[in-house]
Amino acid sequence: MQPHAVQQARRICASFQHWTGRSLLPKGAKDDLELAQQLFHWFQPVLSHGCEADPVLNYGNQAALALWELSWPELVQLPSRLTAEPIAQAERSALLAQAARQGYINNYGGIRISRSGRRFRIENAWIWTVLDEAGGAVGQAATFDQWQFL
Q: With 109 labelled, which of 27, 81, 84, 144 sits at a CA distance of 20 to 30 A?
């Protein structure tokens, strides 16, 4: 539970609440560390990236790390576009732009690819803008509750 990961977990959850009016996690946490632990161990994959020209992932919970077959050091160096196959990257970029304009989108589905090349379809995905403590956009996050290997 590195300080940056704890801060990012707080931002991810607070931003989801801000945009949707819903809590991301099923139960409340007493402090940021407990929230970060709940998010990291939650069954739904959660990923986020920053605002770079070619955004790099800066958070992935345990479910996301397992699904994409990545370690934490590998994840936080990966351009987020590489979570999708090249053919699906244009569609993914358009959705990220739509989420940036609206604050969030939901009910997205698409094909993703793990580090080893294993393909899977995600369903019921939420994508939202991650805000810092001053309300400025610092990236985007995503979660989904259904996936199927192809």
A: 27
**Which residues fall within 8 angstroms of residue 144, CB to CB, at 6 or more apart?**
44, 45, 108, 122, 123, 124, 125, 126
Alpha helices for 25-143 (secondary structure H): 32-41, 62-67, 72-75, 89-102
Strand, helix or coil for residue 110: strand
Angstrom distance (rounded) from CA 105 to CA 53: 21
Greatest CA separation for the chain: 43
| Percent of the chain surpassing pLDDT 70 | 100
Residue 131 has pLDDT above 90, yes or no: yes
pTM over 0.90: yes
**Amino acid residing at 117:** G
Q: Which of 27, 2, 3, 1 is nearest to 13 (CA)?
A: 27
Q: Are strands 104-113 and 57-60 parallel, antiparallel or unpaired?
A: unpaired
**Burial per residue of 109-139, b for 16 or more beta-carbon CB atoms within 10 angstroms, e otherwise:** ebebbeeeeeeeebeebbbbbbbeeeeeebb
